[in-house]
Amino acid sequence: MTATPNLSSVQAAARLIKGKAHITPVLTSTTLSTILGPEPITNEPRHLFFKCENFQKVGAFKFRGACNAVFRLPEDAAAKGVVTHSSGNHAQALALAARMRNIPCYVVMPSNAPQVKKAAVKGYGAEIIECEPNLEARETTSQRVLAETGGTFIHPYNHPDVISGQGTLCLELLQQAEEMGSPLDALIVPVGGGGMLSGCIVAGKGLRPDLRIFAAEPEGADDCARSFAAKEWIPQTSPNTIADGLLTSTGEIAWPLIRDNCEDILTVSEQQIIDAMRLVFERMKLVIEPSSAVGVAAALYSEGFTKLEGIKNVGVVLCGGNVNLDQLPWNAAQ
């Protein structure tokens, strides 16, 4: 395990997961760039570049970090398997990575997790251990499984190898934007636990110290924004948002990187998230989950970003595309 994520560890992760994870495309939209509008002082057009992690394996960026963590394990440790507690994308990502390395994977999931999620994790070959639907039960059950198996615990976001793996998306994005003739001035990344954001900070600032990095967060789960304003870590309490991938408190590894390197934490309303998600569906023909739409909403609707000067080319991370098509939020809002 790498002690602290840095540019070298992200570059090493990119080499390790090459051929295992997808290199996801970067797409543009004239319509969405027009909604953002011109640079306030020069009146030059601004352009949005969307990093489509909804096309990643398991439908989310999470596979990058899980893959790096699994394939970085020494042979003797890997043979005993990997353990995590998750009911979301990380569970599927870790299960798939473990299957690719042909090692056991044990996933502790709350008993009330949706059957479709349990089925997906089982489909990737993991063994599910159910527990009561609370954090204490998840942690104690995980400790029991670790003791029984001798496996290695892979945290969904508070793990240096996971963070380094997530940072590979930023390496790709910066290179892809350069190849498109539009070097990025700024990057907007959704934030929950902060694994993806801190990985992008390490990679982005490591290659481009002048890159302006912004986090995007729902108003209903704004612990990172509150922490950033106070300059001290404040835990998440009673989050309430449709962006279910962004409900967790910022991790202890990620927080100092965010505190010291982000320009701002942009918060958006539930309606703005829904509007942005629908806009991407309709105009870009992309299936994205609400957590992805948080970054889009921040780019288009947050005055903390739209009125900034000196930014022309903006990268926005579409972090995933796992959405229940039977429960699209604009239908529920009617």
UniProtKB/TrEMBL annotation:
InterPro entries the record matches: Ser/Thr_deHydtase_PyrdxlP-BS, TrpB-like_PALP, TrpB-like_PALP_sf
Biological processes, Gene Ontology terms: D-serine biosynthetic process
Listed PROSITE patterns: DEHYDRATASE_SER_THR (PS00165)
SUPFAM superfamilies: Tryptophan synthase beta subunit-like PLP-dependent enzymes (SSF53686)
Cofactor annotation: pyridoxal 5'-phosphate; Ca(2+); Mg(2+); Mn(2+)
Family indicated by similarity: Belongs to the serine/threonine dehydratase family.
Protein name as annotated: Tryptophan synthase beta chain-like PALP domain-containing protein
